[in-house]
Amino acid sequence: MKRLGPVLILTATLAFAAAGCGGSEPSASEEWAGDVCSAVGDWQDQLEQSASDIREQIQSPGAGTLAAIESEIREAADASTELADELKSLDAPDTENGDQAKQQVDSLADQVEETVDKTKETIDGLPENAGLTEVAEAVAPLLPSLQALVTNVSATLDAVQEAGSELKDGFDEAGSCEQYR
User: Residue 43: which of 90, 81, 93 has the closest Cα?
Assistant: First the structure.
């Protein structure tokens, strides 16, 4: 019985030390997928917030409604530019299909940039004294391209996951990708 005490202490110490190690390091695909999902998630959050704020402005128009709507559109455009920059800054994941995944994500970033450029041109082209109707008419043609962009983001994430089992595992394991599974 006297020998059992040191064995129990050693076992408890080893278990505590193993638990403190935090487990294994994330794989290259998990880390890359996490970065992609974090960037996309932040972008989607900003777009949803801007859309909500614009709806609120339209439902309760006031003296600053047009300026607030333009500000929200610019914030969404800035978030989109940030998304494109973040996606392009990511190196290809060190996986079998990493280069293909990087190309798909870079292509998505290019689409985001094109949509942002079109949006900014539209907003910059509005006359200073534009009314709510004029702003709505100018912005309405942008909605299909914005909707297509949201669809393309989703399709790109799906395509990247289908590109290889390592990438799929990375998306399955990355906490920030939970909403895209």
Answer: 81
Structure tokens at 11: 């076992």
The predicted pLDDT at position 13 comes to 39
Cα 129 to Cα 118: distance, rounded to the nearest angstrom = 21
Considering only residues 65 and 31, tell me which one the structure prediction assigns the higher pLDDT.
31
Pick from 60-69, 85-94, 95-104: least confident = 60-69
Q: How far is residue 21 from each of residues 15, 27, 69, measured CA to CA in Å?
A: 10, 16, 49
The DSSP code sequence of 47-77 is HHHHHHHHHHHHHS--TTHHHHHHHHHHHHH
Is the Cβ–Cβ distance between 97 and 85 less than 8 Å? Answer: no
Whether residue 139 has pLDDT greater than 90: no
Task: Return the ∠ at Cα 173 (arms to 170 and 176), rounded to 5°.
Answer: 95
Q: Domain spans of the chain?
A: 25-180
Tell me the pLDDT band of 144, cut-offs 50, 70 and 90: confident
pLDDT at 116: 92
The residues near 91 (Cβ < 8 Å, ≥ 6 apart) are 32, 102
